[in-house]
């Protein structure tokens, strides 16, 4: 016996329209949604996806495109997005660009071909600059990296302010030779570099910006060149993300540098292992669950209110001071 939406509505004691809204992931009363999902399981209802595609321009699927799945930040955000999408009856197509603008363009085209309902995107630097010119028939919500000239909703943290916090922390500990390590091709790296530079200027000390390539071996060569000469080595580092931080720690280990005796460290992201390095690493913890939740909510809101004003949500990270800052020679 074929089970239809009307059968689910009868068991849940709601209208067929309500069942359709729940199955489409649209906002409904949580209790009503739970009743509908319970009725779906009780009746064994399975949507006819082929028929749904013919009736609608879109599928009950969203796309999630991140810039670097190696980065625990994107892993955590992806987990949150998937969990919330599942609760709303949505499926997720996941893609990873490795900070490659060509892959990003290919995946956006894939989303068009799959007729997704919408896309959550962490754009590459080049992609952020051209997102305003991307033609799509679905809404896009940007995470981690905003695009000022695009009419896309976005969820970001105040990268410049958070980088400045790390500089001020190290300065108060007595460090004056503070180098900043930032990605060469990311919007996030550029914003954090700007915050680092302004904070160094306000502290009255010269900055040392070190552009670090995305590829691991190249990154480690750049970091080795920075740290191998003790006479020129900075006393402290501001590191832009946890992937880069791992390269710093590999190089420090190879050079037999002890954290924080020989080198003070601060970074973005807070992973469980970080509290066991150098007396605990001082970090900016990013609100990953809040970012993922806000992105899905904004995407659903945009579907229901296509003409509403573009929104940019700026969240604050949490500074966690541990022992890796040490004490600078000037303290």
TrEMBL record:
Residues 3-56 form the HTH lacI-type domain. Keywords: DNA-binding, Transcription, Transcription regulation. InterPro entries: HTH_LacI, LacI/GalR-like_sensor, Lambda_DNA-bd_dom_sf, Peripla_BP_I. SUPFAM superfamilies: lambda repressor-like DNA-binding domains, Periplasmic binding protein-like I. The keyword DNA-binding applies. Pfam families: LacI (PF00356), Peripla_BP_3 (PF13377). GO terms for molecular function: DNA-binding transcription factor activity; transcription cis-regulatory region binding. It comes from Gluconacetobacter tumulicola. This is LacI family DNA-binding transcriptional regulator. It comes from the Bacteria. CDD domains: HTH_LacI (cd01392).
């Amino acid at each position: 016996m074929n089970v239809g939406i009307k059968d689910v509505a009868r068991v849940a004691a709601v209208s067929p329209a309500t069942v359709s809204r729940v199955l489409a992931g649209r906002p409904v009363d949580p209790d009503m949604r739970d009743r509908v999902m319970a009725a779906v399981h009780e009746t064994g209802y399975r949507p006819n996806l082929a028929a749904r595609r013919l009736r609608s321009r879109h599928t009950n699927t969203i796309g999630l495109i991140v810039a670097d799945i190696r980065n625990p930040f994107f892993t955590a955000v992806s987990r949150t997005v998937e969990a919330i999408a599942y609760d709303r009856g949505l499926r997720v197509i996941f893609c990873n660009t490795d900070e490659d603008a060509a892959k990003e363009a290919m995946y956006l085209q894939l989303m068009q071909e799959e007729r997704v309902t919408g896309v959550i995107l962490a754009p590459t630097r080049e992609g952020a600059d051209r997102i305003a010119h991307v033609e799509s028939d679905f809404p896009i919500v940007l995470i981690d990296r905003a695009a000022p000239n695009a009419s896309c909703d976005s969820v970001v943290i105040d990268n410049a302010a958070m980088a400045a916090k790390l500089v001020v922390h190290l300065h108060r500990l007595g460090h004056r030779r503070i180098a900043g390590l930032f990605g060469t091709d990311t919007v996030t790296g550029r914003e954090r570099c700007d915050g680092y530079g302004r904070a160094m200027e306000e502290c009255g000390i010269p900055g040392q910006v070190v552009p670090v390539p995305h590829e691991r071996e190249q990154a480690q060569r750049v970091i080795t060149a920075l740290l191998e000469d003790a006479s020129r080595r900075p006393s402290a580092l501001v590191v832009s993300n946890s992937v880069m931080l791992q390269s710093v720690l590999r190089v420090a280990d190879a050079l037999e540098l002890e954290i924080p005796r020989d080198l003070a460290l601060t970074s973005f992201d807070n992973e469980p292992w970080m509290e066991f390095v150098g007396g605990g690493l001082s970090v900016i913890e990013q609100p990953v669950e809040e970012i993922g939740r806000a992105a899905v909510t904004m995407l659903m809101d945009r579907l229901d209110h296509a003409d509403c004003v573009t929104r940019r949500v700026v969240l604050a990270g949490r500074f966690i001071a541990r022992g890796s800052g040490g004490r600078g020679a000037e303290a």
